[in-house]
Amino acid sequence: MTDVTTQVETPVVAPHQRQRSPLWFAWQRFLSNKAAVAGGAVLSVLILMAIFAPLITPVPPTAQSFLTESLAFPSSEHWFGVDNLGRDFYTRIVYGARVSLSIGFIAAAFSVLIGIPLGALAGFFGGTVDWVIMRIIELFSVVPPLLAAMLLGALSGGGYPTIVAIAALFGWVQVCLLVRAQVKALREKEFVRAAQALGASPGYIIRRHLIMNSVSPIIVGFVLAIPLAMMLEASLSFLGIGVPPPTPTWGQMISEGIDYMFFYWHLAVFPTAALAITVLATSLFGDGLRDALDPTLKGR
Amino acid sequence: MPLVEIEDLRVSFRQYGGAVDAVRGVSFTLEDGESLGIVGESGSGKSVSCSALLRLLPGTAEVTAAKLKLDGIDVAKARRDDLTRLRGKSAAMIFQDPMSAFDPVFTIGHQICETIMAHRNVSRRAALNEAEELLLRVEIKNARDVLNYYPHQLSGGMLQRAMIAMALSCRPKVLIADEPTTALDVTIQAQILQLIKKVQAEFGMALIMITHDLGVIAETVDRVLVMYRGEVMEQGEVQQIFDAPRHEYTKQLLASLHASFEPSREAADDTPALELRELAKTYIVRRRSGLRVRHVDFQAVDGVSLALPKNRILAVVGESGSGKTTTGMMAMRLTDVTRGQILVDGTDISTLSREALKPWRKRMQIVFQDSYSALDPMMTLTQIIAEPLHIHGMGTAREQQEKALEWLERVGLDRSFASRYPHELSGGQRQRVAIARALILGPDVLVADEPTSALDVTVKAQIIGLLKRLQAEMGLSMLFISHDLSTVKSLTDSVVVMYRGRVVEEAPTERIFADPRHPYTRALLAAVPATNPRDKRERTFLSADEILAGIPRMGAAEAGTAANDAPQLVTVAPGHRVETYVTA
Amino acid sequence: MLGYVLRRLISVAFTFIAVSIIIFLMMHSVPGGPFDGNDMPVSEAVRARMMERLGLDQPLHVQYLKYMWGVLHFDFGVPFQSPGETVLELLSRAWVPSLILGGLGVAIGAPLGILLGMAAALNRNSWIDYLASAFATLGLTVPVFVISMLLILVFAVWLNWFPASGWPSPDRWVLPIAAYAAIPLATYARYTRSAMLDTMSRPFVTVLRAKGLSERRIVFQHVMRNSAIPLVTVFLPMFIGTATGSIFVEAMFRVPGLGAYFVSSIENRDYPLEMALMLMITFMYCIAYLLSDIVYALINPRIRVGGQA
Amino acid sequence: APALAQTTILAPGQNTVGTYMDYMKTVYDRATFAELLQIPIATFDKNFELTPMAAESWEQSEDGLTWTFNLRQDLVWSDGEPLTAEDYVYALERAATGGYDFAWYWDFAGGIAGWAEVTAGEADVDTLGLEAVDDYTIEVTTNAPKPYLPSVMSLWYPVPKHVVEELGDDWALSVDTIISSGPFEIESWEKSNNSVVFTASDSYAGPWPAQIDRLEVDPTLGAPEVGLPAFLAGDADYSFLNTGQLPVAEARYPDGIRRNAVFATSYLSFDMSSEPFDDVNVRRAFYYAIDRDELTSTVLRDIAIPAGSILPPGYPGYNPSVVEQAVFDPEMAQQYLADAGYPDGEGFPELEIWIREEGGYNSAIVPAMAQYLQAEFEENLGVSLTIRSQPSAEWMDGLLNKRGKLFISPYEYDYLDPSNFYGIFYNGGRHDYHVDAYDEVVAEADSESDWDTRYELYAEAEGIMIEEGMIVPLVHPITTAVISEELGGEASTPNELGFTPLDRLGHYFFTHLTK
Ligand SMILES: Nc1ncnc2c1ncn2[C@@H]1O[C@H](COP(=O)(O)OP(=O)(O)OP(=O)(O)O)[C@@H](O)[C@H]1O
Ligand SMILES: Nc1ncnc2c1ncn2[C@@H]1O[C@H](COP(=O)(O)OP(=O)(O)OP(=O)(O)O)[C@@H](O)[C@H]1O
Ligand SMILES: [Mg+2]
Ligand SMILES: [Mg+2]
User: What's the whole-model pTM score?
Assistant: First the structure.
């Protein structure tokens, strides 16, 4: 036997390089994406503001402490002005983040929680499982969420839980379809066969390979579900069936602000801006996260 | 003025945790009409250098060169439309991975035609005719139909040939062929090489042939460039490189060509490690005629029986598409078996449930043919290699990782690769990862589907050495599916030849190379490229009909079996069986 | 293909029936009936008489089966809120403005969105990309009634270029269509961008470049076509979805379309109309999915020939 | 008239859903300004004086139970047929048998003999206390003396018997079959949004003929958000305003601003049959816990005035002594709540305050007021409430079936008499209240012919209402509108009280408007 196996490979890369976990690389990739970092920062600030709202606001959100100044324009004392009920508008916006963010994130989380398993099951097993899940999906995609919300709202008394439920109930469809398509394509790939050859169970394959390889549609779905839920809240508020007052929500403030847009512009502008900034930050953050978690996108 | 002038080309890829220097100061030139071969280990920067010449590298690549000229134009500074003019016209490229080189939503015909029409002012009809002609010349028989096929309807080998046809359709001044024949069996390979040479003579085209197959080099080129680790080790006339290699790496390269291994030791136990009995696979495929769609059965594997004795290496060779992979997949229970039995250590596993199969999975492993898609793109190499341990719950996470790193080294990859992802590897590197994953559990039976097709000779020798050693150490039995007859010859104990879903000949390795009986086996052996430029020769090729006509005939008495209309395997010598028509 | 369409139709029928049952049950479980919206309550006797007249005194399943039997004969009943015409007549009348609004909105918004998405993808990480993304995000995040109000304030009240609202003459269509187009525009810009980026990272694009094809041809022929595949699946349902009209745009711009009926039929417990509207949406979505599947199959050869449904 | 000389007024409407262009068929889903097409027995002018229209005169019998209305003889339908007493009688007979939402009105308010029995299907329509004595004389018999009956008759419009007998209810569905007897005729009717085009009638010979050629009414302009931009762009001749728009409109059209005190009241009502509002002390506590002046000077600035009584100021029967009792007295409120067993609100259940989704002027008032009240009750009573907003069908269902406990209820007058407002709490009525003492006094007042006695009796009734804490009056809405400088005529100027009722008095307004 000819000896050719010796000393062919010697390390090229500098020896000081340590073992790094994939998450470390993902983190590095994320950090190098300026827009995503900015989005993440804005989002964290918003979340912190929502959590610590009582600490950073002068009055409670429902306190009608400034009745005599109602509808006042922004000033150094009231940064975002005062609303028609004499409440500090800045306070309302900060507290509004609680509802809007939680509706957005709960709905998105639910849609991912429902959408991923169902999508993966449908995509992986195909056949009857797929048929049944597809029919369920069809049911949900056929009924416009707004109308379902009106009906369900009437049935259940409406309010915050209904809106979250509706947003979750309708948000998962997108995620599910995305994951299903992805899993369907991946199922034929040889690395799935390879895992089978190693004795992996379908559950393991779905968990570890298929879902991991679907991060990008999952994150896209997640990120899309957030504005959808927030917009749903806003739309329902416009129709007068959103979260009941006086709980501040951006959607409600926007739809009320519309009435004041001719003159008291601040009542429409601030909540709209808050909503837009949140969604923008979320999507930047989400895009960055997706790029970071998907090593194959690195070159782009 | 030379056609290609490269001086001090450097390419590095930006990466987190340091840049990868893929090419580190490569220089060479190429004259009109000249053929240059580039050989070198896998990952040595062959593909990257050539892509740099056409400026096709991704955005993460940083390219610097003292000179990077193609057809007199400085590629590094060329504007976009200059590049468009250069590409295809001055240089065309046959890409290494044909499977993903075609746009999936356009027909093959469209894609060849648009190439022709992009460079020459011809009508669509004329372009179509030319495309058909080209396809015929790359041995695609049903060229007229194939023009209307979409890429996913062609096999890997056909795609590679279509890719070649497409590159030739540009009539470039220099053709860059990056491993143009890896997906092809030797018979087709030989025909393609002949075609390239002919076209080259016809149009006075220059050629850069990138390959790790020294046989291909010997057959086709005038001058050779040997690359290693992103650098040119030596270059010279082909004969001189073969006869008097100067550089150490080149010497190793050539030595590996003649590597041979000791035959396996006889095992005491004579229950075969793996036995297939009358294994068959029928695919239902759709045929459409007009609006009607018919479903017809397609016999991908048609009653294959073979036995892999313990501690032995059995080669399965054969035409592309003859059912080798399918057989291997069925043996692993990864594809449903239509008919037949799979015996592992005497136990039939063909009907076991998934749960019942799990312990067997530990003992049987497979290395997939397509290493690119066999690795999860979202996992690092450590994760991939450690996955079997993870699935079977062996050891702590730390131990798993440590073991994975060990295996990374055993297959000749540096530990620094541990946190890379598959797409950051060259083809050969990926294949080695796949091998490491298959072996980490210490299986008894290994189905290796073209495990070395993407490896350069030295690494190949190293891997084969490894497999051989493991065979000795762990008592590994291996089904070695391959197109590479020289490896088969040096590595395996016996050979099974498959043709159109059936086993047509079976014999101990030495015997089959010395005394092939079946016309297909003969054709196969005749097509093996020379191992020295001196031995290159003109070849003739048999058509499918000629092969059928050449099947041996025997009287029933002589064969020892009853007469039959269909051919059957007849024993002609101890351990040597050939498909024969048995007549009364 | 025929078998495939048939199978899809069976699924559609299934969905159709399921939706009709669910909606019917939900509608009838909501408290209050068609005579409860008044300032003073109606006496029991009168209510009973009215319910009987409308057939609402029968058991639910009888009502359902009767309604569906009617539907089979294209009889969707008479809307409570517009006696004197059938539900079908009402729909065909009110649908026209919604169709014009939605159709033109998508027909204008979608191509613009695609162009914007393309521009963003082709100039990745440049200011064009950021601008397009910001624009798309705004389109998706600023509620359409705010956009409508802004358009009215700026173009009608302030600049006086267009009438503020109304529908009869086409010059009044400009603003509502612009408001409406914001949604498809934003959605498309987003989807197109990511689909294009996906496609452009595929190896065959490198091969196309290597063949010496012009960048324009690569982008407009190959990349577009490949990117279109994921787009089709969102496009058609969305296109048809617009036929239901945007409740908000129609309200802000006084478009006499279907939008208001979605809300009023629920609020007024106008069961026949509400049922018909829901069934109409169901039907259109189902058709849209069917169509998009077919178009998908037409542009994706893998499905066309490979034959996995 | 040549097209050029035509005067057209573009007006906002209210209700975007319109079923029948027939005033006597329905109340709530009636087509836009169906009343302009017909001539009522009598109607109100800008100062809320009852003015004879179809009736030239009327008289009450000695026992007060029978009324005789003498009609004008020169009235015709637009198809040339004469308008007769039969058309009026027929209108009510048809309403009693085929309609539904007039039941309360003609029974309680009108007190027409036999009405309840006929609508319930227990008696024949002939037994109704209505009779066309001859073509131009109508006799109305009531159950009890109804001194204010002519005021109720302001809602009595005719239907063309000869057409209805031929076409049934459908006569009022198509522009082609609708005929009119009033100052306007109909030209077109867009059902999607209930917008209509009326033209001045050529055949109308009664009082108050139209002074404009065309009237276009579009209910989608009713919402100020939509109406004002359209007004600014010249697509409407007047528009209602919301608080946010007021500064802009005031700055641009200082002379065009018009206000109207709508005869309407928002009040709190309770489910008096169960905890905690079955205790009168709780209800009284709520009565005293509201600072109406603060409410109307801040949150509802410009859109409402304080309500101390169910009756709005200027409305007949309005009694300052009643109003005075409605004071803001947190201590007293606390005391009552403590008496009820909830000192400082302790142990008081978490309740929902039900509000109705509203269009029109109420849409700006009710939700804001609910939030204000919520904060006030929290502060003054230590009671925490949540707001639940419901579409009208559900809200009403909740009210009647006592699914809710506390409601903000808005009500707008139907005819100009105190009995209108007191009637909504009479014997079940709107709230299923059964307070015997109250019912007795109201019944007595209703049939009392002497105005001063009635006035006293109603004050007594409201005293009981306050004592019992049946309702808590909150505010009376005010509407604000901006009208185009081109609009002229008597109707465009304020009345004696400084209010301009605009289309609240449709019959008067559109016939006294010029451009
Ligand atoms: N996109 C990339 N990002 C990072 N590294 C890369 C990339 N492409 C190639 N490389 C690295 O560059 C080196 C040279 O790669 P190249 O493809 O030229 O090898 P090769 O000589 O063609 O090998 P093979 O024979 O296996 O195809 C390898 O080490 C590879 O890992
Ligand atoms: N899923 C499938 N459906 C239909 N036909 C298939 C399928 N998979 C494989 N085949 C066909 O079965 C035959 C055998 O394929 P197989 O992959 O086993 O060939 P092979 O001998 O491994 O060829 P190669 O050397 O090119 O890898 C081929 O003709 C192939 O086209
Ligand atoms: Mg290569
Ligand atoms: Mg194979």
Answer: 0.80
